[in-house]
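Hi C.,

You asked whether I'd gotten around to modeling the 680-residue construct. I have! Everything is below, sequence then structure, no commentary in between.
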Amino acid sequence: MDHLAHVAKLRALGYQNKYHYLEEALSRNIGFITAAEQDRLMNATVAIPGLGGVGGAHLVTLARLGIGCFHLADFDVFEPVNLNRQYGAKTSHLGRSKLDVMMEEAMNINPYLEIQAFPQGVAQQNVHAFLDGVDIVVDGIDFFNFEIRRMVFNQARTKRIPVVTAGPLGYSAAMLVFAPDRGMRFDDYFDIHDDMTLDEQLLAFMAGLAPRATHRRYIDPRSIDWAKRQGPSLGAGCENCAATAAAEVLRILLGHEGMRPVPHYAQYDPYARRFHQGYLPFGNRNPLQRLKLKAMKRALRKGSNAVAAEPPRSPLVTDAGGDIPDAVMDYILRAAIQAPSGDNCQPWNFITGKNRIDVLLRPDADNSLFNVNQVASKIACGAALENLLLAASRYGLEGEVAYRPEGKSPDCLATVRFHRSDNEEDPLQRFIWERHTNRTRYRRRGLPPEWMIGLIRSLDCYPEMELKLYHTKEAIRTIAGLVYRADRIRVETRALHEHLIRMIRFDDKAASQARDGFPLKNLEAGRGGEWFLRMTRTWSAMRVFNRLGLSRIVPLISYQGIVQAPLVGLLKCPDTRSTTIVEGGRALERLWLTATRMGLSFQPMTAITLFWMRWRMRQLDAFDAKQKRMLCSLWQSYHDIFDVAPDSPEGHVMLFRIGFGRPVASRTLRRAPEACLLPN
């Protein structure tokens, strides 16, 4: 509906002119502002560069406040990624110009608005026209578009136009006011120089925008992708900014007292329940700010070198019929290889065919003592199998699994044939990309009983599996003692130590090249632990530490990790046949993904269970007499706590701890799907 149609509709309702309509439409503003002030707002012109998260909310809020004239600029279109926070982002508006949509939204509020549109956005060639005749600028520019922001602010100062910026930082609004006749200039406050890199300018802007940073306590800094120029943003924060900025716009346009230009600052955070306002002498040139910026630069350099997993974007499929598109098959394989594996050895290969994937064991991937009869690798392949079935559910595909299919390679563990289904996407699919091992210290916080029930229910589709959960201090201490003794054997066994060192990637370059094993930071060992691992890269060095008794430190860390956890679990399977072990891996992945969906941290504690499997299979040649005696001393307590009958054929898939940990410093990488594909 265009401007004239809106006016015609109002006249049909009895409103014969602009003032007749606006007098009633804006009547509830009167009392907070006077009728004379309302009239002044109706004749004011506000420029809003950018109509995204905050810009769109600014426009609507100011239109309802009664601002009568706008200069609006935006060159972008609405996309699904905008839906969580941008006023005009609706499914009916996807692909449409943000400027066109937001002009319609504003005209729906006040069809008498005077709007000058700049569909190319703000640039050097039109910034003077954009600011011409403007009373105030309200910043709606994307955080990463710093060059345009700097130009607009500096040109506004030259034209003696005040600028209000309110940045959505989490739930909070961080506000600064730049006045043309007092306070600091934009470049002076943020300490911006032409010889700075864009990253340095952005860091300076972030530091100066919110000197007290109330949002810091709940934002995950890893979610900011500096390379791609994107970061998290909440609709609640954008709405908070619109309200904060609108109050300041009213104050400035009506000449009310209380404007505080930079270096004054303010930030209100409803989630943190904090309001900070203050005065920052010299802006970012303040000594404390300079120290803060140095720390932020170090964190940025560290973050840019950090190894992290990145989920692929799900391909869009408009035709659900026919064969599986190559893009969907690639997505399914990328999901499969996100499965956990012993020391991240990734012991799988795949063969794809028409609507089919074969999952194959890669027996040479893990030759460690832990991988007795390839049990650990088969568990990992089962987890990969579960992942690819979950990923297929996103596209309405259901997989029929045939174990050990005839006519296939001896290494082929399963063949999955896909067919169309009316089933909904499995909600666990979304958490394939979030699941990871968390070795940090867990908080001493118990799990609600319903959460434990949820973990148990996650295995309803695998009724032959048994999940034992332990939450009492006595039981957890008993298990921690067993793990401690098993870990002592692990660190004192040369083959296991050398295997661990082979799988550690001691720098980011090695991790990026190998794309398997552990980045050193992933082990969460701290500076002392990392020094210890570097010092003991050779067995001769490790043997010296063992003789000094320092080898007991590593098992003690495992002991403390379990004791601090609110929950320890053991997943059992009925026997150790190959197919059963693979199914155990599938069940483990569902359990782990369920814990991830609940927001829980999860860490496998596998040494004790894999030693037990090797003991049951009587493959003990790798252990000396002392180690055999130590192992033998474990089993009575092990059988008692885990309820193992003497003649039971059962297998133990994984022992693990669950709790609430800190964000991990680094994630493990995976080989590319094509590196795992074998010819058909």
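If it helps when you're writing up: The two ends are 58 Å apart (CA to CA).

Thanks,
B.
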